[in-house]
Amino acid sequence: MTSNLRSRFDRELVHRFGIVAVLLLISVALAATTDSFATASNLTNVARQVSINGILAVGVTFVLLTGGVDLSLGSVVALSGVVCALNAQPGEHSLWVPIALGVLTGGACGLVNGLLVTRGGIAPFIVTLGMMTIARGLALILSGGKPVANMSPALTDLAGDLGPVPIPLLCFALVTAGAGLFLGRYRLGRHLYAVGGNEQAARAAGISVPRIKLFAYGLCGLLTGLAGVVLAARITTGQPNAGQAYELDAIAAVVIGGTSLSGGVGGVVGTLLGVLLIGIINNGLDLLSVSSYYQAVIKGVIIVGAVWLDRRQARS
Amino acid sequence: MLSVRELTKTFGGLPALQEVTVEFRPGEVHALMGENGAGKSTLMKILAGLQPADGGAIALRGKTVRFASPQDALAHGIAMVHQELMPVPDLDVAENLLLGLEPVNALGWVDRAELHREAAEWLRKLDCVLDTRQPMRRLSVAQGQVVEIAKALARQTDVLLLDEPTAALSDHEVTALFKAIDVLRRRGVAIVYTTHKMDEVFRLADRVTVLRDGRLVRTAAAAELTPDALITYMVGRELAQVFPPVVGIPGEVVLEVAGLTREPAYRNISFSLRRGEVLGLAGLMGAGRTEIAEALFGLRPAHAGEIRLHGRPVRLASPADALAAGIGMVTEDRKGLGILPAMSVRSNLTLSALDRFAGLAGLDAADEARTADEQIRAFAIKTSGREQPIGQLSGGNQQKVLLARTLLTGPDLVILDEPTRGIDIGAKAEIYALIGRLAADGKAVLLISSELPEVLSLTHRLLVLREGELTAELDPRRATQEEILRHAIPR
Q1: Any CB–CB contact under 8 A between B300 and chain A?
Q2: Which residues of A touch B342 (CB under 8 A)?
Q3: Could you tell me which residues are beta bridge partners of residue B462?
Q4: How far is it, in rounded angstroms, from Cα A186 to Cα A192?
Q5: pTM
Q6: pLDDT at B410 exceeding the cut of 90
Q7: Greatest C-alpha distance within chain A
Q8: Which among B340, B357, B369 has CB closest to A198?
Q9: DSSP run (H or E) holding B342
């Protein structure tokens, strides 16, 4: 790895110091106040839980970097899960068919989002809001409104472990590493930042803005499809009602991680930290047996507070 | 009524106004004249409370005043009608006209009948008949301006500032506007307005003030002036001494443009440009210079006409097409179309030429860093290092980064649109030298500039535009600034 990329990574870490500190603080507090937090089984559990939100957050990081937004994540997770489950009945297809179909379903939704944003000139908020209800509807239609069960064990085993590591975590790690490399090292990654930073200037610099946006939405869709498959494997069914409000946790994680909602600034390292913070808050509140009503309030306050602190720090 | 004394304003060390003293009288139309960048708009903005002055004083009816905001100026009876109007497009005419002054009934509800009656009344005072129930967005620019003027009238305005009110109007609309201005004059309002159009000054203005390089040149009654005298006042300086000699003999034709048209910006533009040649494009703001450059760079394609590069017709639908064809452009709009403020100097430098560093394993970061450092040195870009965000650099250094970005793509044709706008004299001299080197290296250069000394001193040949049409091809060795302006100023 070159010194260039290395220094970039270091700078981002330093810039994210505030979040790292909050993360450590909460972890230490939880380890001190609960017996169960710092146990191997709990930590693997946290890892398993954050994986799906993590994959979604990395995907939507691409979209947010271009200055767009994707509100359809949760519904597309459900749709992809249903498509995967429908094709994962025992003895029907080989293992890769349901996986590929699930992932590609997400990709197709993302591509449609991207086309409507670029060709149709419709605001991303509206396009993906539409996709949110369309994908949910399609999931209900395909499943007949009922969970698609009886998935082949080969597929549901994918929610298990590979050696000591949960496979969903492995997926999340690979996706994050790949996205980080891509954004930091490849031309397309650089173009993504340029489009989000100043769309007109990016066009004047010879970048095809529609192509970049299409790519961002398409890739976000593929990763959403992957999250849908992982979720279906974990809950061993294709749930048409799964994934409600998943987009909110994913976008919150990205924004906590310092990616600007107006685009052009941020990256995957921040998103990773944001995902961990949200995961640990969720886990901690569970361990402290805080009622789920209060959990929602506390989580909201922490999300807004973390972003507020971060922005204040960035401004000074 | 309103006077300014020794008003001074600097932008980033560049003086925009230097000790300007003028008096504006009630019932008088006072024209502010000067080349682009002479300080007219700055003076207007200070009077309207949009910008604070750095020095000097403003006096209103003998009392010294200081405007903290446009609202503050309005409260003192000073209103400005902008080049770009700022109405609320979806409210109707009456709602816009009486925004904040709506008549209300006993219950505090807006009395809509009274609202429209009052609005129509104000418009009638300006000899204007308009349906006050139509939304503002349906109005023409001229109608919109009359509504803005009526708005000012309804707010007991004593001083009305008009910034290039006729720039976007047809002759017929100008007549209607002048009628409205005349009504205001008879009511004792002091009217200050800027324009480039010579005939208007003599048709409308009582007195004229000429500014040049931020300094007051002369204030005189319009009756005492002639168009030629005005032009001399506006230009009246020796060419700056910083220009390198124009060298070399242009080679084969690189670019041919035939019948390029995009109404209403420009029409039937034909010219050619040779290897090693610097071709100047002069004209006033709004003459279509930038629009022609944007067509050649694919930013806003022409509607008709042909562009040939090296003898072959090319289709330029986007800047990507243009760059691939060997055309590079440094834009006039550095903030809007140029820099990516949050990104590093390095990323900004290499953005258009990333394929140079691209491989299967991604961008060659070491090579990219080396190239960035080379360019920073070659262009003498003042920065703390290649990783500094470009937004923190001065305008001149940002401009050098953008020049370097364009040249890294290895273009045959380089379009420079106002390359020295808003940058200090040192950086200007460096850019002048660079233009000379580009031509010497065999590039074809199209130079657009509002600064006449630049187009006169740096080019082999000079085209003049007036209202979207080519009006003259001049030899810069013999042409004078007066001659350029004569071809450039609408008549």
Answers
A1: no
A2: 197, 264-265
A3: B280, B474
A4: 10
A5: 0.76
A6: yes
A7: 61
A8: B340
A9: none
